[in-house]
Amino acid sequence: LEVIEHATDPRSLMKAATSLLKKPKDDIDARITSSNPGGMLFVSTINRTVKSFGIAIVGGEYVTGKLPIGTHAWEQFLSPEEVNALVGEFDVRELEKKGMILRPPFYDLRWYLDDDDYDVNWIGAYSY
After folding, report:
1. CA-CA distances (angstroms) from residue 88 to 54, 83, 91, 117, 126?
2. Three-state secondary structure along the chain?
3. What number is the average pLDDT over the span 15-43?
4. For the residues 109-119, what does the mean pLDDT come to?
């Protein structure tokens, strides 16, 4: 998890990752009932928002010191729409996405998934 924002070429990374997915049978009904529904790719990253800059970079690197300074570059964060476009180039589509929210107190790094808040961390499931 949390790798794509560190890649120098996210498109290449997604091309390689999607190429490893097992393709499902052609028939949609076979996908649901078959033991060969195809592979799934999970991508988690940090969204490129003002909120993510404040929490992930300022908070994580400077305020709490949980991460070494310089771990993240805000310009490399990717929105769910950008990841959808990347995997879409390889005929893979989003199945579901969730925001990953850090619960206070932040020092113990407890997370929960949220249906609506993708402002900072998020995770998506993708398949053919």
Report:
1. 30, 8, 5, 23, 10
2. CCCHHHCCCHHHHHHHHHHCCCCCCCCHHHHHHCCCCCCCEEEEEECCCHHHHHHHHHHHHHHCCCCCCCCCCHHHCCCHHHHHHHHHCCCCEEEEEEEEEEECCHHHCEEEEECCCCCCEEEEEEEC
3. 77
4. 91
pTM of the model: 0.84
**What does the block give as tokens for 128?**
């053919």
Q: What is the mean pLDDT of residues 5-10?
A: 94
How many Å apart are CA 113 and CA 123, to the nearest integer? 9
Are the CB atoms for 58 and 64 separated by under 8 Å?
no
